[in-house]
Specification:
It contains 13 helices and 14 strands. It is an alpha/beta fold. The protein has a single domain, classed as Alkaline Phosphatase, subunit A. The strands form 3 sheets. An 8-stranded mixed beta sheet has the order 4-3-5-1-6-7-2-8, covered by helices on one side. A 4-stranded antiparallel beta sheet has the order 9-10-11-12, covered by helices on one side. A hairpin with a 2-residue loop joins strand 10 and strand 11. Helix 6 (185-197) packs parallel to helix 9 (277-307). The mean pLDDT is 97.
Length: 513
């Protein structure tokens, strides 16, 4: 062990927690992630505090709830006045490097109106140095790599199309794309990361690597496209019909179609139907294949760190930005209030605390805890405006006193530029098109703005959230208790960046620069 502290943060996009712990874990091979777990601490009740990608990463990188940072949807700017993990890491002497994307929409206050940074929602989080651009809408280095290898490139809009190997039939989702596994976006990012880090053995580096997979479009190169037999997989947790799902709440009619299952694949028009369970299971199997492809590349990355003698100097944080419904409740994607959209993996390997390696933590944790934890471990203090709490005590085998007994989750489903499908079905104007969730061990409240009815679930009796108890008189006291608790939580966690600071004749009290 040396003082040459290195930090590697790895984010997998739209990766469900139950691929690691839960029903799907029994049907998927993730040998490298499981090997990491044996040498790390696994947090089994970890939740993304919001989604989709932009808001979830804004919360993760700032340590703040969406109610405080207010970058509440893809394309909503993150205020330049808010600090983040990269800016704070620089104060410890690190040069934070990005391999992939942060999905940060830039504050227009700090750019000229003609600045091209204001034409994309996939901007760079201030403080990071972009070593490799792998933005979902761009990915120019990957395209250039494929071209240099002799691929005949289609238009970028068709990069993720399935290609039928038989000209006599249309493409199916489990047909491969035009590129091989060794040349995929996942492999290319890993190759670049390995090459760059291999020459940094004698320095303390800080790297963020973001994999787009297993995020749709659901297309996988061979052998991952048919790695799992759809017939072997459990069916999604869902009500008997889509009509029963939409009857739960006005919000659900839009959630079932945003996106519809058919929109998760490309190049297969008319070849799949959500009414066909064989198609549902096929797409679930492709998702698992993509997750295994990420795992295989993580194995290469970890092996390279070991071969270079860097593994035991590196703090490794492996997580996802948010979850994926994968057919549960007849839904796909993540913009809804159910657990699979929010529950995600978190694995932290701190080589300086080997006694806890191989253990699990069953306490509630949130993505806002990630930045405070990393800052704590690299010698920075947790800033007053951050809603998250350092998980360092858990990594040292301690349980903090008065730890949270619930998680606080959010979702905004309106847009300032158009009326969304959710707004159409709920009638909510943009400022009211949002919901907040308070999830305890047993009970879960979903509170909708705009006068919409709430949802209440007993997760002990109903872990798949099939029975809404909000209208049951027997649960009216519980509904009131959770609503009051949610209100108190939001009042207590309102932006506190300066609230405990006081200017006195002796100067600023409680102020830490």
């Amino acid at each position: 062990m040396t003082d040459n502290r290195k930090v590697l943060i790895i984010i997998m996009d739209q990766f469900r927690a139950d691929c690691i712990d839960g029903a799907l874990a029994r049907n998927i091979e993730l040998p490298n992630i499981n090997a990491l777990r044996a040498q790390a601490v696994t947090f089994t009740k970890h939740f993304s505090v919001t989604n989709p990608c932009g808001p979830s990463r804004a919360s993760m990188f700032t340590g703040m709830y969406a109610m405080n940072h207010r970058s509440v949807r893809n394309g909503t700017p993150l205020s330049n006045n808010i600090t983040n993990i990269a800016r704070e890491a620089r104060k410890s002497g690190y040069d934070p490097m990005l391999f992939g994307y942060t999905d940060t929409s830039i504050d227009p206050h700090i750019r000229h109106e003609n600045d091209p940074d204001l034409t994309t929602e996939e901007g760079l989080l201030p403080g990071f140095r972009e070593i490799l651009e792998m933005r979902y809408m761009e990915s120019y280095p990957w395209r250039a790599d494929l071209k240099s290898k002799g691929y005949d490139l289609p238009e970028y809009a068709h990069f993720y199309d399935s290609i039928s190997p038989d000209s006599t039939r249309p493409a199916r989702p489990n047909d491969p794309p035009f590129y091989k596994a060794e040349d995929s976006d996942t492999a290319f990012l890993t190759n670049t990361l390995i090459k760059d880090l291999s020459v940094r053995t004698d320095q303390a580096w800080f790297a963020l690597a973001t994999y787009i997979r297993p995020h749709p479009p659901l297309v996988a190169p061979e052998p991952y496209n048919r790695m799992y037999n759809p017939a072997d997989l459990p069916l999604p947790a869902r009500m008997p019909t889509m009509e029963a799902e939409t009857a739960v709440h006005p919000f659900m009619e839009a959630a079932i179609n945003a996106p519809a299952m058919e929109q998760t694949v490309r190049g297969c028009d008319g070849q799949v139907s959500r009414d066909n369970d064989d198609d549902v299971q096929m797409l679930r199997s492709i998702y698992l294949g993509l997750a295994t492809e990420v795992d295989a590349n993580l194995g290469r990355l970890f092996d390279s760190l070991k071969e270079a003698g860097q593994y035991d100097d590196t703090l490794i944080v492996l997580m996802a930005d948010h979850g994926e419904m994968l057919g549960d409740h007849h839904m796909w994607g993540k913009q809804n209030p159910y657990d699979p959209a929010y529950r995600i993996p978190l694995i932290i390997r701190d080589p300086q605390n080997p006694a806890q390696h191989g253990t699990t933590v069953n306490a509630f944790t949130e993505t806002v805890d990630v930045t405070p934890t990393i800052l704590d471990l690299i010698g920075r203090h947790v800033l007053a405006g951050m809603d998250g709490v350092s998980l360092r005590p858990f990594l040292e085998g301690k349980t903090p006193e008065n730890w949270r007994d619930c998680v606080h989750l959010e979702l905004d489903f309106g847009e300032p530029t158009h009326t969304t499908k959710w707004q159409e079905t709920t009638g909510a104007p943009t400022d009211d098109a949002n919901l907040a969730i308070l999830r305890e061990e047993r009970f879960k409240l979903v509170h909708f703005n705009g006068g919409l009815p709430p949802l209440l679930f007993d997760l002990q009796a109903d872990p798949d959230e099939m029975h809404n108890l909000a209208n049951d008189p027997a649960h009216s006291a519980m509904l009131l208790r959770l609503t009051q608790k949610l209100l108190s939580h939001r009042m207590r966690r309102a932006n506190r960046t300066m609230t405990d600071v006081k200017i006195t004749s002796e100067g600023a009290v409680n102020f830490t620069p």
